[in-house]
Design brief:
The protein is α+β, with helices and mostly antiparallel strands. It contains seven helices and six strands; from the N terminus they run αβαβαααααββββ. About 15% of the residues have low confidence. The structure holds 2-acetamido-2-deoxy-beta-D-glucopyranose (3 copies). One 2-acetamido-2-deoxy-beta-D-glucopyranose binds next to α5 and α6.
Amino acid sequence: MSGSLLSLLVLLGAVVHSWQQRDHHNDYNYVRLADEVGNKTFCSWKCLKFTLQWPGAFCLSLDERLQCQIPPDINTWTIHGLWPQKIMNCCRCWNLFPSDLQDLDEELSKEWPSLLKSKSSFQFWRLEWIKHGVCAACVEGLNSPMHYFTLCLKLRQQYNITQALSEGGVVPSCDHPYKLDELQGVLTPLLGEHHEIQCITDHQDRELWFQVKIPMSRNLTLGCPADHQDHRDPTAEHGPGQYPFTGHPCPSQTPIYLVPIDPQNPHHPCG
Ligand SMILES: *[C@@H]1O[C@H](CO)[C@@H](O)[C@H](O)[C@H]1NC(C)=O
Ligand SMILES: *[C@@H]1O[C@H](CO)[C@@H](O)[C@H](O)[C@H]1NC(C)=O
Ligand SMILES: *[C@@H]1O[C@H](CO)[C@@H](O)[C@H](O)[C@H]1NC(C)=O
């Protein structure tokens, strides 16, 4: 091999080597950037809350002019959402279209209906996806609308509080209230001890049970890592954003009502 060819090869080798280093360096920067962006925005969460709502009380939390609507086949808890906790904003970067959920439409309509006349169920799902689902989508198994909504339906089945409550003798009634520890006693075996039972106060100052939040880790085991156990969840508290209610933990010393669900008369289930 001639001397000049040899030095050309050495030179080429050095160039390739430096390219590789630069690429490696760029990858490193890219990873670091993604990490920082991810931490600050939508991928840093450690805890999810799966939230179920009781349509009977949900409708009483609304001003009548907002026109609650309970589809005629709805007679039990429905899904409100699956919310990653303590994130400041999801990116508004992943739209949802009806065709994304075609195969789930029927089941979602039954388990996750909109309860507002002004909003179709699809509009409700779209809001939940954009507001919460997109943040959840950085985890394997949740990383598409199909995955996210399918998981929600599975969770609804797995944590079937409808069944647990009726087996525990907790049935809707306008006259017979429950105590918080009764309700917790029925739900704890299914949901773990960290579930949250939320109430609203009606205009007669009665406490109405309207929501249950079930905390779970990223890997979907019940409960959250200890430092994420607190109840502050600024993005989630108002759910889909347009609802004017605010719930609070049901009080331990006050009677709690599980009002009936009356699709004919959603704002006055107790007459
Ligand atoms: C982002 O999170 C990762 C993993 O939790 C951590 O190693 C990294 O230091 C965080 N970066 C910033 C900028 O907080
Ligand atoms: C929950 O349980 C009830 C009563 O057993 C049943 O009718 C219903 O289909 C179940 N819901 C889901 C989502 O599995
Ligand atoms: C799931 O995550 C939690 C909290 O990060 C952890 O304590 C637990 O061991 C994990 N469970 C499994 C089965 O990976």
